[in-house]
Amino acid sequence: MDCLSLKVSEIFFSIQGESKSQGWPTVFVRLTGCPLRCRWCDTAYAFHGGKRMGLEEIVSQVQAYSVSHVTVTGGEPLAQPTCPALLRRLVDLGFIVSLETSGALDLSPVDSRVVKVMDLKPPGSGEEQRNLWENLKWLTPKDQVKFVLADRDDYEWAKRTLQAYHLPQRCEVLFSPVYQEMNPRVLAEWILEDRLPVRLQIQLHKILWGEERGR
Prior knowledge:
Blueprint: E1 5-15, E2 25-31, E3 51-54, H1 55-63, E4 69-73, H2 83-92, E5 96-101, E6 115-120, E7 144-149, H3 152-164, H4 167-170, E8 172-177, H5 184-194, E9 199-200, H6 204-209
Parallel strand pairs: 2-4, 4-5, 5-6, 6-7, 7-8, 8-9
Antiparallel strand pairs: 1-2, 1-3
């Protein structure tokens, strides 16, 4: 394991603001790099830079926080080929591990014990063409599909995608408004009007700390 390394943007301890583990104290391992350029990306600082760290060095820092939840995120964490090895090492150690991924890169190497939170890109993101639809077959009931939505057009696209791919039958589905761009109340009303089998998600960490880095 010691010969493996990854480029790490930051490792920090915070409250999980999204997904099924929302609210849990969580260690975040943010990896450097992303091949996508979503219009509303809030972690563009992770596109470049970072520090090269050995796999066991990363694990040691995670263990130092003495909590059960770990999220590997980015950027796009799967852009680094060693990411699946890090995920596997963390679950082998007994951590509850989630992976936040764009869904634009192959999910097949990801350990089945990892909770996959896959972000499907609507037209408003500017990256709709990057969705790798074959990834849906790797999702299980413990995983989640997330739609970050900017407007009614994005919402209607997401609704069509739900139906076309039978997503609620595969796993939990999250609808989330673009921060400070779409009114969460409006999105909630649309979901209620259409009786959609999805969960409204508002980014808890941004309610608590705004866009403060490392939170």
